[in-house]
């Protein structure tokens, strides 16, 4: 029986690299995004959803459960970045970041983890950020949301230990995605999205008796 991975925000950037990697390895892949303008591999199933909205998160979860018998891997990747400072960013920025970067992962995990618990098997990856551990000027609500996501990951890790479900927090630094569009820096100054996907695959392939709890990744020359 084919294994199944669910990846949120899987049409671009890090999410797309994860989708491509696991599809290449023979997984059935289910992904979602607000829209899909990309051509996805044959074994990828797409569902249109805006995960900043709880009702659409739950609709996506229902779609997953009605499409496959089980989920072996869940990657909570959906997120976005807006620069700003707490004292001057636009009203509503915090709510938007929390709804997308944190609540989507919270609600989707709750909706899908029950079957993993029953089977005593599964793997959850949460795509955090170096902004989850390092506050910086102009990070504002993004840092707050990513600190919170790492906190959720830590709690899940403790809660799911007895059920043999592995939980890994991925904390990438500057990765060449649309978030950096327009920045006048050479691509060599960034990590490639494929590098993140390869690390996730490596972590997944470890024996089930071992888990990489947190993986911090940065460009060789450091943060930007």
TrEMBL record:
<protein>
    <submittedName>
        <fullName>SDR family oxidoreductase</fullName>
        <ecNumber>1.-.-.-</ecNumber>
    </submittedName>
</protein>
<comment type="similarity">
    <text>Belongs to the short-chain dehydrogenases/reductases (SDR) family.</text>
</comment>
<dbReference type="GO" id="GO:0016491">
    <property type="term" value="F:oxidoreductase activity"/>
</dbReference>
<dbReference type="InterPro" id="IPR002347">
    <property type="entry name" value="SDR_fam"/>
</dbReference>
<dbReference type="InterPro" id="IPR036291">
    <property type="entry name" value="NAD(P)-bd_dom_sf"/>
</dbReference>
<keyword id="KW-0560">Oxidoreductase</keyword>
<dbReference type="Pfam" id="PF00106">
    <property type="entry name" value="adh_short"/>
</dbReference>
<dbReference type="InterPro" id="IPR020904">
    <property type="entry name" value="Sc_DH/Rdtase_CS"/>
</dbReference>
